[in-house]
Design brief:
Oligomer: homodimer
Distance between the termini of chain A: 43 Å
Number of helices of chain A: 6
Shape of chain A: globular
Strand order of the largest sheet of chain A: 1-3-2
DNA sequence: AGTGGAAGGTTGAAGCTTCAAGTAACACCG
DNA sequence: CGGTGTTACTTGAAGCTTCAACCTTCCACT
């Protein structure tokens, strides 16, 4: 058993990282909740749909882009559907699958709430960092994500090096209101 | 209305950071849950108590060190008490306050589970990073935390520059099993 | 065709967090 | 000494996530 402890530099870093991971979701949620009646995760769902072709995505693809499990997404999409922000359509090509599509009301909701959310992200994250640190953070988070999701299943954050495969009947698109 | 969008560098960084913040808690929870029957937050509670003088901390101080709200902590400590890992004692000096104290069983639980947890943190985070990146990450997370918690209320991650005030009747101590 | 297994989702229950309210104790101030 | 406000928590309800089934449908083979 070659168990090691952490070095003091690692420990100091970990304490801060853990604190940030604990605090950041709350900061995102509370701004969006207050100003738009959305959780950050709901916002992500709307944003990812807005960037997709036809503003439509299969549940599995949407789950990957929002870093979520399928059950979680399923519940959330049902609630968003009840609120009229999203609709579900059975997928014609594959009868097992469900397509989630952003409604006009969902698009409007996103357009309304995006600026405030982006301001919030900038305030909490980017105003605190130098451009150099932003670049460092990109490569650090990239490295950690490779560990958390080695297979790149969560495609949102990976620029996948795989050749341009069919990519689940989706086409790259032009108009997204999202910004994360 | 001087609303700006994010630059493409910022956006790319944000997508990864958001993914990491979403995925890391699950990775921590599932290892601890599987191997020790604890959530990461429960582990943190035990760890912070283990480092405190008398293995005892007031609820407010413990909440600060675990980056949690008081209601959240209150529920969790009650459940830990039901499991015999922690006990609650009314504070003699201030009858409003409650002291949480790590029991012997709680200490044992922590000692058992710490090595596996530390391995997991090292695997997901530190093995992915160069020593230089670890230093960069410490300063980046420090900067972001200053934004998330400007008053330094969550003391865990801040080395507070304030003069040595009374510090809530706590004394710095020697023996902790925690490591975050 | 027919079968075994995998893929894609959904569902209900259990568990945890958040939120709003409520209680008790302390502290200050005239 | 009484009043006013603040601090320190606890509690119950509501909401969200997770977990473990479950049901279809698709796919690959024989």
């Amino acid at each position: 058993m070659s168990r090691q402890w952490l070095t003091s530099e690692q420990l100091a870093t970990w304490v801060r990282l853990a604190a940030m991971v604990e605090l950041l979701p709350g900061a995102l949620d509370s701004q969006l909740r207050r100003d738009a009646g959305l959780t950050h995760f709901e916002y992500m769902v709307l944003a990812m749909l807005s960037e997709a072709s036809e503003r439509t995505l299969r549940m599995t693809a949407l789950a990957a882009r929002t870093n979520a499990t399928l059950p979680r997404l399923s519940h959330v999409v049902r609630r968003l559907e009840d609120r009229g922000l999203v609709e579900r359509l059975p997928c014609p090509q594959d009868k097992r699958a469900t397509n989630a599509r952003l409604t006009e009301a969902g698009w409007q909701k996103l357009v309304e709430s995006a600026p405030g959310h982006v301001d919030n992200v900038r305030h909490h994250v980017f105003e605190a960092l130098t451009p150099e640190q932003v670049a460092q953070l990109a490569s650090i988070t990239g490295a950690i994500l490779d560990r958390l999701d080695p297979d790149g299943v969560m495609t949102a954050a990976h620029q996948r090096p795989t050749p341009p495969t069919d990519e689940e009947h989706q086409v790259r698109d032009k108009s997204g209101a999202g910004q994360g």
